[in-house]
Amino acid sequence: MFKDLIEYIAKSLVDYPERVVVHEVTGETVVIIKLKVADEDLGKIIGRQGRTLKAIRSVLYTAGVHANRKVILELIEPPDKASEK
What we know:
The protein is α+β, with helices and mostly antiparallel strands. Helix content is 44%, strand content 24%. It is built from 4 helices and 3 strands, in the order αββααβα. Strand 1 and strand 2 form a beta hairpin. Helix 1 runs antiparallel to helix 3. The termini are far apart. The mean pLDDT is 89.
């Protein structure tokens, strides 16, 4: 359910929808969604000052409340981009 939602949103935003990868790890009360996109599309998912990513997380939070679950979205960055920070 959550995986499909994030996959739909991400593929709608990016230039390379075929490179969107979503993994879902489900626990008893927590669901972790891991999202990976093409390097070129990271900015489109994050948005200006993180607004797009924050909006996606808000949608997930609302869906999680209705399902009585806590949903966490992790954006997986490429190793070379993560080390620059």
